[in-house]
Design brief:
This protein is an alpha+beta fold and 118 residues long. It has a single domain, classed as OB fold (Dihydrolipoamide Acetyltransferase, E2P) (Beta Barrel). It contains 3 helices and 6 strands. A 5-stranded mixed barrel has the order 1-2-3-6-4.
Length: 118
């Protein structure tokens, strides 16, 4: 098995919009990027569990010393920009340590699911 193809960059946490959308910036930059956590579906803020999911994500990110954004590019083909931005957001994983993503932590703690709710 080969490692996934993608871009991995250090980022700085700015704020959480909700449980599965986080704003980050590049070090030494004030430009803010919205990151939609890949394969991680939290309840909306107006739904039951939405505020708790956001608070959990904020708690994790407030206590993370080293944060990295991984943007998977496997199978993208020619249109990389379309893969990077969806609804003015970057879709990716936020690595809070060398072994854990915020995406996984939200799912494992019961604040999110891997499947999009219907």
């Amino acid at each position: 098995m080969r490692p996934p193809v993608g871009i991995c960059i250090p980022v700085r946490y700015v704020r959480c919009r909700d449980g599965d959308t986080v704003e980050v910036s590049l070090p030494k930059s004030e430009y803010v990027y919205a990151v939609r956590l890949a394969d991680c579906w939290c309840p909306e803020m107006r739904e039951e569990g939405g505020v708790a999911a956001k608070e959990f994500a904020e708690s994790v990110l407030d206590n993370t010393e080293s944060l990295h954004l991984f943007i998977p590019l496997d199978g993208v083909g020619v249109n990389i920009l379309a893969a990077l931005t969806t609804f003015d957001r970057v879709v990716g994983e936020l690595w809070v340590s060398s072994t854990k993503t915020l995406n996984e932590m939200l799912i494992e703690a019961g604040y999110a699911s891997r499947e999009k709710p219907r």
